[in-house]
Amino acid sequence: MMKKVTILMASLMFVFVMAGCGAGGGTSHNLQEGEPAEQTAGTESPAPTPGDSAGSGEGSGGFLWKVSHNGNTVHMLGSIHVATADFYPLHSKIESAFDESVALVVEADVANIDPAAMRQQIDGLAKYADGSKLKDHLTPELYSQLKHRFDQYGIPEEMVENYEVWYVNMLLESMDAIATGLDPQQGIDYYFLQKAKDSKDILELEGAQFQFEMFDGFSEDVQKTLLELALNPEADKQETLQQLAEYWKTGNEQGLAEFLFAPVEEKYSDNYAIYMEALTDKRNVTMTEKIEQYLQGEGNKTYFVVVGTAHYLGDQGIVKLLERKGYKVEKEL
Description:
The protein is built from twelve helices and six strands. By secondary structure, the protein is an alpha/beta fold. The protein has helices at 8-21, 92-99, 115-126, 140-152, 165-179, 188-196, 208-216, 220-230, 237-250, 253-260, 269-296, 318-324; strands spanning 63-69, 72-79, 103-106, 201-204, 302-308, 329-331.
């Protein structure tokens, strides 16, 4: 039995990006030209108002580190990309670190996305170019399981039939997350993007296009492995996502690390290892290099970096990578 949603970290960023593509800021079901399908996977909550949590007590937990060098300081916040209203107010240490920073640094500035351009980019990557259909690439059993899940969300077969496995998989995981009540407009990234838009520089470590290209670059075998794991009937998605949220709110670093990096069944392990290396290890290296650039720069600046919490944890996480480079990383929260 697998205890976690296998592409959870990535799917949460996916639904966050797709929220930027939706006309109303919600999750877009518009996989074909025309009007988007009706939202069936939960109701969005109003986004937290920037500034509401400042100075209002200790607030929600989270994960916050600090590293300084050459007169520069980088505060590093571990994010959860979709959340609920009870994540707020945030801890006062988080708000203070943001307030003293001149720039917000995120994986992707999803609050400043051109929906039409993003839709065109996604279609260019995710649609089959050879005229084949999704069901041509899956076993009948796996396709039937997938169709059943989409039927539960009111998504007709024709809306996904032209799309590659990785994209359909991420859409499924995103719908599962929203069905549990998690909301991209309540996400930690979105909160700070809204708060920073009129007061701070906003910098990207990667960009949404990079993340979609990463998933498109996986072999079809890897993509199908991830879909099989996502469709695992033994996985309790609601319990899993609630556990993830609880680890974040209570700042339980050990519990979250064990949760995120739990092994999968042996028959999936090779493809899953390929996936995790690309999702975390390789990206952690490039993120660390950019953080180091901020530390080595001139001007005595303070930066507030917000990326998925998984990128900081473990032996190949950003914290350990910085420490191996000789930097002293302080745990603030």
